[in-house]
Write a structure and sequence with these properties.
The complex is a heterodimer. Chain A is mostly helical. Chain A is built from 8 helices and no strands. In chain A, 69% of the residues lie in helices and 0% in strands. Chain B folds into 2 domains: 42 residues; 249 residues, MetI-like fold (Orthogonal Bundle), CATH 1.10.3720.10. Classes of the chains: A mainly alpha, B mainly alpha. Chains A and B meet through α1, α2, α3, α4 and α5 of A and α2, α4, α5, α10 and α11 of B.
Chain lengths: 240, 296
């Protein structure tokens, strides 16, 4: 259905203006952003998801769950706007890789949390009572359940990653629009693949648009790879 | 008494920070939005005329998109649930879920560079020539327009809406089918009656899709044209709220008019959340009804 028409798949040298460079800068930028965002979001999501799964009746868990569901549907541009306003303006951090990563993390977190909490419900139901009956402490039980459900956890993280790579609106204000820089340190601006696609796709230059298509192709392959991984994991399912 | 003590166990404390962190982050997000939007409420009068085209655009594009999505999503649901052979079914469901989670930029790019020009010379020209007397379809069709954005948006939300509808559809009790067959009707009638049965659920799913579509930024921004004006024809370019924010925030930032944008985002949020909440209520009441069907 969705034709990719990748007219030009370019290799990763840096982008130039009028010639036909590559998408090296944005590729690296995206990788850095998603990795950093994951570093932020994964621990919080896993912990929060586990919390919601194991103590579903506590006030905190219910509150967290409701909030997560609300934010999941949020227009991501609003999230990007807020992160921009908070970190870039008020705290005067300026555009940096860190702010982009934070914006991404905020977008990924609610989704991953809900995925993880759902993924843990089944192993919990299956194992909890048996383990308690065997005399295991509460903490150990939970850790066991989490390891039993690690496929689901991984799935959640992978889907979060996929979303992170493709997320545009949240990054529009937190990431630079000059695509010529390679990543140096966390305080310097960085750029990302979807933002490149957005801007280059709208540009009047023909070759810029081709680059956008190349980038779109790369992004698609990336996302498809991640999703296939997810499906492979899902099919593995619950061993035993 | 045991519960109280259990709460202080290390397992609880181990996981608690995660949930707390999430909660705090989300709440501070809200607070931040509100606080920053407050200054703008004073001068609300000044900003409204500027935002009106965006609000209009959002209303139009999203509504048309949902209207277009109705046949698409219901069609997809029926195809998956009834018509496709078993082997194909799972593949279709996977593809459909994949499409729902795809990066939206790619949709936007496709819409802008492939679908747009194609439609401009075929379907849009057709509509313009024959239905051009209607103000809705007047004017010369351009490469980007409300209608194009609506179509791309419809394609984007249909898989999602379809999976929602499919879930409810499959929950309709078999006794309904059997009743229909007993009356001597055929397979199609069963489908139609089932759909009629879950009408409210379909409405809920569509409202949910509406809520999500309202916030869609990139694909719409690329295909709607970025023209900040109210154009009466669907075939002309326009602007929607998220696209407005995306395009114009850069300039507004330097003129310290930032608060107005936050207010605008709040409006967007308000619309979206209202629809989503209504949608959830719909779907819940629908599920309750489906489940209690047949139990006198």
């Amino acid at each position: 259905m969705i034709e990719q028409g990748a007219k030009f798949f370019t290799a990763p040298p840096p982008t130039t203006d009028l010639g036909l460079g590559g998408i090296g800068t944005v590729l690296q930028g995206s990788l850095v952003l998603v990795a950093t965002a994951l570093a932020f979001a994964a621990p919080i999501s896993v912990l929060a998801g586990a919390f919601i799964a194991f103590y579903p009746n506590s006030f905190t868990a219910r509150l967290a769950r409701q909030l997560a569901e609300v934010v999941v549907e949020f227009p991501t541009i609003v999230i990007g706007l807020s992160v921009f306003g908070l970190f870039i303006v008020d705290l005067h951090w300026g555009l940096s890789a860190l702010t982009g990563a934070i914006a991404l993390a905020v977008v990924m977190m609610p989704y991953m949390t809900i995925q993880i909490s759902e993924a843990l419900r089944v192993p919990r139901a299956m194992f909890e009572e048996t383990l308690y009956a065997l005399g295991m402490s509460r903490l150990r039980t939970m850790l066991f359940v989490m390891s039993a459900g690690r496929r689901g956890l991984l799935t959640g993280l992978l889907i979060g990653m996929a979303k992170g790579f493709g997320e545009t609106a949240a990054l529009l204000f937190t990431v630079t629009t000059s695509f010529n820089l390679f990543f140096t340190s966390f305080n310097r601006p960085v750029s990302a693949i979807p933002v490149l696609i957005y801007f280059y796709g709208l540009a009047p230059y023909e070759n810029w648009r081709e680059v956008a298509w190349g980038a779109a192709f790369v992004l698609t392959v990336l996302v498809l790879a991640l999703f296939s991984l997810v499906r492979v994991l899902a099919r593995g399912g619950m061993s035993r | 008494m045991n519960a109280k003590r259990a709460k202080l166990e290390k397992s609880y404390l181990f996981f608690l920070p995660g949930a707390l962190a999430l909660t705090i982050i989300v709440i501070s997000l809200f607070v931040f939005l509100f606080v920053n939007a407050l200054p703008a409420f004073y001068y609300a009068g000044k900003y409204v005329p500027e935002f009106l085209p965006a609000i209009y655009g959002t209303a139009v594009v999203t509504t048309v998109a949902v209207l277009l999505a109705i046949p698409l999503s219901i069609g997809l649901t029926i195809f998956i649930a009834e018509l496709s052979p078993k082997a194909v079914r799972d593949v279709l469901i996977n593809i459909s879920d994949l499409m729902a989670a795809f990066p939206t930029v790619v949709y936007g790019l496709w819409g802008l560079t492939e679908l747009g020009p194609f439609l401009k010379s075929t379907l849009f020209a057709f509509i313009n020539r024959y239905l051009g007397f209607l103000p809705v379809f007047s004017g010369t069709p351009t490469g980007v327009s409300y209608l194009l954005a609506s179509m791309v948006l419809a394609v984007m939300i249909s898989p999602f809406a379809s999976s929602l509808i499919r879930e409810i559809y499959l929950q309709v009790p078999r006794s309904l089918d059997e009743g229909v067959y007993a009356l001597g009707l055929g397979r199609w009638e069963v489908v139609r009656i089932r759909l009629g049965f879950i009408k409210r659920g379909i409405a809920g799913a569509l409202a949910l899709a509406f809520g999500r579509a309202v916030g869609e930024t990139v694909a719409v921004a690329m295909t709607v044209g970025g023209v900040v004006a109210i154009n009466k024809s669907l075939l002309s370019p326009g602007i929607t709220i998220p696209a407005y924010i995306a395009n114009l925030f850069g300039e507004a930032f330097s003129t310290v008019d930032v608060a107005s944008f936050f207010m605008l985002s709040l409006i967007l949020l308000g619309i979206g959340t209202a629809f989503l909440a209504a949608a959830r209520l719909f779907i819940l009441s629908e599920q309750r009804e489906v489940r209690t069907y047949g139990k006198a």
